[in-house]
Amino acid sequence: MSLWTPGGEHPVDRGGAADPSPATSQRLTPEQELEAHQIAAEMQAVRDQLAQVPAAVVIANHAMGCYELAAIHLSSQPPKLDEAQLAIDAFGALLSVTDGRLGPDDATLADALAQIRLAFVQVKASWEQATTTDAAPESGITPETTEDDGND
Fold first, then answer.
1. Which of 79, 83, 128, 148 could potentially form a cystine with 73 if both were Cys, beta carbons 3.0 to 4.6 Å apart?
2. Which DSSP string do the residues of 66-134 spell out, in sequence order?
3. At residue 52, what are phi and psi to the nearest 5 degrees?
């Protein structure tokens, strides 16, 4: 077993291990032990703070994270439409299952979802038009030349 810290992964000896391997037989230095205890205390402080925040606020924050993620993928060059769609779908699913339980943030989140969906449609259409326009001259194929005119 090991303990992950920002300074790296450190093996932890729980004592009484039936098969002491080199990884589990190492002891933490006093400095590493102190660092591990400090990290554990910081994590507990964050958990205690989070427990004081209403769940609706945290969930609304996560929903906006999905919005931001979708916006990042839509603004990439080229746009990452599949990634954006996944983030938008997750955002929509989150709002669907919380339906009206996020308090005053509900209306804002519903508007944000509508906006990011509209942005997705616009970016997708623009991207498809740009790639079609770019591809047509290179291939020599235009919409007019791909249609069957019945003169075979």
1. 83
2. HHHHHHHHHHSSS--HHHHHHHHHHHHHHHHHHTT-STTHHHHHHHHHHHHHHHHHHHHHHHHHHHHHH
3. -85, -15
pLDDT tens for residues 126-137?
Answer: 999 988 877 655
Model confidence, pTM = 0.65
Q: Which residues pair with 137 in a beta bridge?
A: none
Residue 45: both structure tokens together: 């402080």
> One-letter amino acid identity for 76?
S
- Grouping H, G, I as helix, E, B as strand and the rest as coil, residue 3 is strand
23-32's contacts with Cβ under 8 Å and 24+ in sequence apart are 28/3, 32/5
Token pair listed for 59:
């969930």
From 23, 130, 11, 149, select the one nearest 79 (Cα to Cα): 130
Domain ranges of the chain: 2-51, 55-137
